[in-house]
Amino acid sequence: MRPLLKWAGGKRSLVERILSLFPQDHQDRAYHEPFMGGGAVFFTLEPGRGTINDVNPRLMNFYRVVRDRPEELIEAARGHRYEEAEYYRLRDRFNSKPDPVEDAALLLYLNRTCYNGLYRVNSRGEFNVPFGRYRDPTVVHPRQIRRASGLLRGVEALCSDFEYLREHAQEGDLCYMDPPYQPASRTANFVDYAAGGFGEPDQARLRDLCVELDARGVHLVQSNSDTDLIRRLYEGTGFQLESLRTTRNISRKVSSRGGGRDLLITSPAS
After folding, report:
1. pTM higher than 0.85 for the full model?
2. Same domain assignment for residues 115 and 191
């Protein structure tokens, strides 16, 4: 199924290639996605068990509400109008941190109606993306929300550092990692949705975890930017590297969008 949310760095254009790197019996294995975002791979794969995770607590609240309270979410989101004044009123309401169901409904509304589908916060943690200009956006897709609820039913939704996988990933499990990309240039970085960003030490920690999980028998696929740093980190590990040209659809400026190169990093046994 299609993702419920638009998200910076979404992998819809690469999903088929990523899925081709998983074993053929992937439906029978537990699946883990520690950088969930919009979850394009998760919703295409439709795993029956495993974990999803993201450091953005409001994103993970959204997925828990979709899983556990879909009808309440549908009802809460239905009444919001696509109008500029309404948008800013609801953005202020979202920043007041309402109860979990309303929070999830407002996140869905803002995601569908804000500029370019961005999730960005200021230094106070307040969502500050301006109103977007669309013809007639559909905010609520009840069938899609109900289907997503069923897919998430056997999945644990966490909000933690990616190293939680040391406790959860077991031999034979699948893991897809889509971390915030190592920027290819100073203007290409976009990690504003999480405090602290994701720098070179985090990329090195992720490499160390991948090596550890691979030795344990976990099948790993990671997407990252094709940069000298990422290539150096995985040099000599045995992981397979594949460079692909992709399109960047979300950026602060329309003029900054365009092509780039992604690096798919796959377990040596693949």
Report:
1. yes
2. no
